[in-house]
Amino acid sequence: MANYTAADVKKLRELTGAGMMDCKKALDEADGNVDKAVEALRIKGQKGVAKREGRSAENGAVVSVIADDNTSGVLVELKCETDFVAKGDKFQAVANALAAHVAATSPADLEALLASEIEPGKTVQAYVDEANANLGEKIVLDRFAQYADGYVTAYMHRTMPDLPPQIGVLVEFDKATDDIAAIAKGVAQHIAAFAPKYLTREDVPAEVVETERRVAEETTRAEGKPEAALPKIVEGRVNGFFKDATLLGQPYALDNKKSVQQILDEAGVTLKRFTRIKVGI
């Protein structure tokens, strides 16, 4: 088996606009060399390869589908090259169709999604490739989230009034309560605005904490702080990192005298997980 990673497949897809399976086959034949794989796809005449090489798809839309009873929901990002295409009805129809397909089929991962049939005899990959051809731009589907184990809802944010939502947040709580809709909306809006990277301290990888601790210690030493005071100062700075990076430790957007954790505790609910997607990031 050729030596390449999922990141190499993604890079080749971005460079060429070719389908995932075609990219994987090209990398197999090129022994994992991305440049040779691009050349191989050119030789084989994959649609749009030469035309799309080097283009970036940093515009697009985030769409969601939430079950009527809030027991499940999906979030899908579909990218394109320009905001002109992103605001068009055809592009948004493709994005919504893909989100509906995810909601109906619950694919295990991106590879399974792209290989699944969205129409009789047509895979999702073929459907996206067709959108490439019809819209005249590179269209990329490489990110989605799906929850189905609690109370699920989404918040969609438009950064510009004439564009589709550019930020989407999917949240899942342990249960529904009388005021869960308001709590969920507020927390999802907070996540959209403050972009926490993790839910709790326990979710932060050990290597990330170690890096933050090392940077805090080196910074404190460079400032000439007394040696005896180093441990307390470093610990304070690491705690500050946790407060900024973890959702539950952040001051709540709608009441900054309380943390998000305090808001959830008062409401008697637990936020199990969340996904925040911003187009192109």
The percentage of residues in β strands lies in 15-25%
What shape does the CA trace take?
A: globular
Structural class: alpha+beta
Strands of the largest sheet, in order across it? 1-2-5
Low-confidence stretches: none
Number of helices: 12
Approximately how much helix is present in the residues?
40-55%
User: What sequence of helices (H) and strands (E) makes up the elements?
Assistant: HHHHEEHHHEEHEEEHHHEEHE
**β-strand number:** 10
Largest sheet: 3 strands, antiparallel
Distance between the termini: 31 Å
Mean pLDDT: 90
Radius of gyration: 22 Å
Describe the 3D structure:
The structure is a single chain. The chain is an alpha+beta fold and 281 residues long. 46% of the residues lie in helices and 21% in strands. It has twelve helices and ten strands. It has helices at 6-16, 20-29, 34-43, 49-52, 83-86, 89-105, 110-115, 124-135, 180-194, 206-222, 230-245, 260-267, and strands at residues 59-66, 73-80, 117-119, 122-123, 140-147, 151-157, 167-173, 251-252, 255-259, 271-278. Strand 1 (59-66) and strand 2 (73-80) form a beta hairpin.
List the helices and strands and how they pair.
Blueprint: H1 6-16, H2 20-29, H3 34-43, H4 49-52, E1 59-66, E2 73-80, H5 83-86, H6 89-105, H7 110-115, E3 117-119, E4 122-123, H8 124-135, E5 140-147, E6 151-157, E7 167-173, H9 180-194, H10 206-222, H11 230-245, E8 251-252, E9 255-259, H12 260-267, E10 271-278
Antiparallel strand pairs: 1-2, 2-5, 3-4, 6-7, 7-10, 8-9
Helix pairs in contact: 1-2, 1-3, 2-3, 6-8, 10-11
